[in-house]
Design a protein that fits this description.
two-stranded antiparallel sheet, about 140 residues, DNA-binding, WH_DNA-bd_sf, mainly alpha, DNA binding, WH-like_DNA-bd_sf, transcription regulation
Length: about 140
């Protein structure tokens, strides 16, 4: 007899479950510290912190979001005072995006908490297991492309 379909056995189910649980923890920290920030906004801020001056299409590529969604996120972050757009010196249609001083301060305030949670998420997982997990996850991502 064929085994019935079980959604909890799907690879995507486990990945999404982990994502949801991680997002909840991080959103709790954002709220606790008084920052009105979504996980998606945090993802964009991470990219800009690591690579200041990216244009919108580069941010979209690095965050795996479509350009329209990135535009909305950037608009909100701009209204909150966390980012600034500067004209691109070679392409008049593009803007280079940077964290403002306020954005850098907020990011610096949250980083210790985010790093602490990252350590908690890794609890009981050896470095070898983590490397293997990352390799397997990368293969899953490649297969999904």
């Amino acid at each position: 007899m064929e085994k019935p379909y079980e959604h909890t056995e799907l690879i995507g189910y486990a990945i999404i479950k982990g994502e949801v649980l991680i997002k909840r923890k991080l959103l709790g920290v954002f709220m606790e510290k008084g920052y009105d920030l979504t996980f998606e906004q945090w993802t964009v801020l991470n990219v800009l912190y690591a690579e200041p001056g990216l244009i919108q299409s580069e941010i979209a590529l690095r965050t795996f979001k479509d350009k329209t969604n990135v535009t909305r996120i950037l608009d909100v972050l701009s209204k909150k005072g966390y980012i600034a757009r500067e004209e691109h010196d070679k392409d008049r249609r593009s803007y280079c995006i940077y964290l403002t001083d306020s954005g850098k301060e907020m990011f610096s305030d949250l980083i210790p908490d985010v790093q602490l949670f990252n350590e908690q998420f890794r609890e009981g997982i050896s470095d070898e297991e983590l490397v293997m997990f990352q390799k397997v996850l990368e293969k899953i991502c490649k297969n999904a492309e």
